[in-house]
Amino acid sequence: QVQLVExxxxxxxxxxxxxxxxxxxxxxxAMGWFRQVPGKEREFVASISTSGSTxxxxxxxxxxxxxxxxxxxxxYLQMNSLEPEDTAIYYCAADFSGIRLRDGRxxxxxxxTQVTVSS
Length: 119
What we know:
By secondary structure, the chain is mainly beta. It is built from one helix and eleven strands. It has one helix spanning 98-102, and strands at 4-7, 10-13, 18-24, 30-36, 43-48, 54-56, 64-69, 74-79, 88-95, 108-109, 113-118. Strands 2, 4, 5, 6, 9, 10 and 11 form a seven-stranded mixed beta sheet that branches. The longest helix is centred in the C-terminal third of the chain and has 5 residues, at 98-102.
């Protein structure tokens, strides 16, 4: 069982930046971020493999950057030029399979952290 703990969410203004962190209790997992707005489906944001290969949803490329520190078993999501439309609960996920992770079928999820962007 892998425990994932997210942090770094909060209330910011449009145009601001925010960095989310997710610490995992295990290692050697592909890790990623999803987000969900109430009433809508959970949306893939970005993922990173154990070797550092990154994947992004097209609409967020250029504004969001995913990275990881394998020594700390931690993945980060740097979010720049935030927009009110980025308001959501952001969830961290981990999986041995990067494909399954990007499909949203990971067995391991964090509790979520709220990001609110005011206009």
